[in-house]
Design brief:
Layout (H helix, E strand, L loop, with lengths): L1 H29 L1 H12 E6 L6 E2 L5 E13 L9 H8 L3 H14 L5 E7 L1 H9 L7 E11 L6 H4 L2 E3 L2 H5 L15 E3 L2 H5 L1 H5 L3 E7 L5 E4 L13 E5 L3 H10 L5 E6 L6 E7 L13 H9 L8 H4 L9 H11 L11 E3 L2 E5 L2 E4 L5 E3 L1 H7 L2 H10 L2 H10 L21 H7 L5 H5 L12 H12 L3 E2 L5 E6 L5 E3 L7 E2 L4 H17 L13 E7 L8 E8 L6 E7 L9 H14 L6 H12 L13
Parallel strand pairs: 2-10
Antiparallel strand pairs: 1-8, 2-3, 3-4, 3-5, 6-7, 8-9, 10-18, 11-12, 11-23, 13-16, 14-15, 17-20, 18-19, 21-22, 22-23
Helix pairs in contact: 1-2, 3-4, 10-21, 13-20, 14-20, 21-22
Length: about 625
Amino acid sequence: MTKTRYIIFLSFVALATGLLCLQLLRLQIIEQDDAVEVARGNALRTNRIIPARGAIYDRHGTLLVHNEPTYIVTLTPRYFNPDRASLLAKLLGVEDSVVIARLEEAKKWSSFRPSPSFPNVTFEHYSRILENIFRLPGVGQKVSQKRRYLTNTRAAHALGYISEITREELNSNDRYTSEALYRQGDILGKTGVERGYETYLRGIPGSARRIVNVHGLEIRSYRDGQEDVPPRNVYDIHLALDAGVQALAESLLVNKRGAVVALDPADGSIIALVSAPDFHPNIFVQHMDSDAWHELNTSAFKPLYNRATMNRMPPGSTWKPFMALMALSEGLVSESGPESTVYCPGYHPLGRGQFFRCLGVHGHQDVINAIRNSCNTFFFEMARRMDLVAFKQYANAFGFGVTAPMDLFEQTPGLIPDSAYFDARYPAWGVGTTMNLGIGQGDMGVTPLQLARYAAAIGNGGTLHAPHLVAYLENVITGERLESPGISEPIRVPIAADYFDIVREGMRQVMVHGSGQWSQIPGIPTGGKTGTAQAPGNMRDHSVFIMFAPYVNPRIAVAVQCENAGSGSICAAPIASLLAERYLKGALPNSNSVRLRRQRAENAVSFPLLDSADQE
């Protein structure tokens, strides 16, 4: 019996030893590589190194956006002891419930990965955490960067803003899905240049491997950092924006709803882009709670709405140079001879005793005088003669009714109607419906960006450039320079150069003898056109103006919309001329002309400021 037990015992020992040997064989030889990785994973942590976001400068090298250090406290749920929540809360100066809530939130992302649960911690609280880190397993810390937008130039809708990436963005099927690039807590450009050039501004994160102990605390670097990978491909951005002109435009739009866009007619680079009312991008740098975000989105001021690229409204009489160009090109009116004029008795007859009024009794009007006098009768007649298909084609050729190829995502194509549109909207429409289009009224809508691009094309003689904010990018490490990546080639508007010369002369006459003469820049001949766009209901009309300067070889083209501010000469024209003068001269001189124009601009307000009909 004893011998039998002995044999059983030896057999059991032999079996256990054999199983142990087999397990050792599997771990040591068969699955050696996998086992090494698992062991290393328990002892090593790979930290992502997010590079400092690229800085943003204006065309003169003035710094507009840079970075400041910020302190972050992380939670790794797997290692954190909930019993230490009170201690952590005390050190951070928050309620215990806040720590518990952040811990639960971190668990939803990952139990094993550090979650940036407390961003933008003050240095005082950060120091307390460092002093007590040995008592807080699962609590980590790191120094990061936060964005800082300088206060002298807001440029909110041009620069855009950044915010923490959302779960929806991480899970979406776009460029933000790469786990190597983005994780929970990362910062993402949401609008403007920050969004359009996110890839260049953010760069590619690096990595650093660290040895950790059983409590998850980092002890030292792994292999003296030989396997660390530095971040790369971060670019600083140099804008075409002129910070001085931008700041002046922002100041002139105080107490107004409206927009300004200024372009260089030679290449389409954006000198200024303002939408008012706006916001300061710095409000997004700190953590924004849901109530604050809701208030910002539902504000009657609509500060997030980019009026410069999305505000669709009739262009008013600023449309008349376009009508003149189309009429000349299509042969609706001739350059000279008996077919070169239209008689204006102060109205345009519609038949059956009906008529459209003009702004005055102008007599015989050719193209130049019709533009100078803003003669409605002349342009009603051009609209009566035009073909609606050709109208839309020419409008599209000038960039109306289509989105511009540019480096801002927030755009609307506007509205240029055709027969299909009128068929759907008006069961019984006729020539009376389309004649309003001749003076930039009725069923049509354009944006300030489109108006500026159109003014630039007239100023340079017919070349339509792609508008762009970025002049070039510069790699922060290598110094490599990229010139406006992705900008489309310019397009020639299919209208003869001679016709542009005629229309340009009409716009020069507007500034010398017409409605723009009070906004003429002393010593600098310019071309311009005022416009008064009808507003819906009983609201005051919108003030609109376009110009280019100087008249010969223009260096700036400006479009201004002032909502519910009256005629174009009251608000929009003085703003545009002040901006052009500031850009061309480098500063505004201390002159009576500047004081009078500034006074006219500042006295004009959008009335009532918070009660305008929504613009699409």
